[in-house]
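Quick start: read one record
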Amino acid sequence: MIEAHKRIIYKVCYMYANDQDDLNDLFQETVLNLWKSFTRYRGDSTYNTWVYRIAMNTCITFLRRSSTRPQTIPMTTDVARLAAEEEDVAGQLRELYRLINQLGKLERALILLWLEERSYQEMADILGISKANVAVKLNRTKEKLKKMSNS
């Protein structure tokens, strides 16, 4: 199950990591939390939704614990590799990640799920908010990102 959802876990952790070490720690912590809570999985939601929820909660808990550390902008080998392959796209990705890193926790989660092309219902299930609230908050977050990119 971990192997099947490895990309989801990585993407969630990447959005909350400050550097490669944090990314590795978050990934490992998420896998550990999935392992610990697997026996409590009731099947009320899909595995994808359950994995997203565990990963996001793990990352948010990590942020709370490390909130006393200075804020940094992540520089990963993945971004560097993209830059070598296609500089324009890599520059846009760096700018997008920089802007996303300035968002609040819920806003980051919403944008991540939206970029993953999740339905509003899936987002609502994962985040524990109503479908209508997802729509409102997502639209506000998109507008906020547009304003940030124009500044």
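The CA atoms of residues 26 and 62 lie 8 Å apart.
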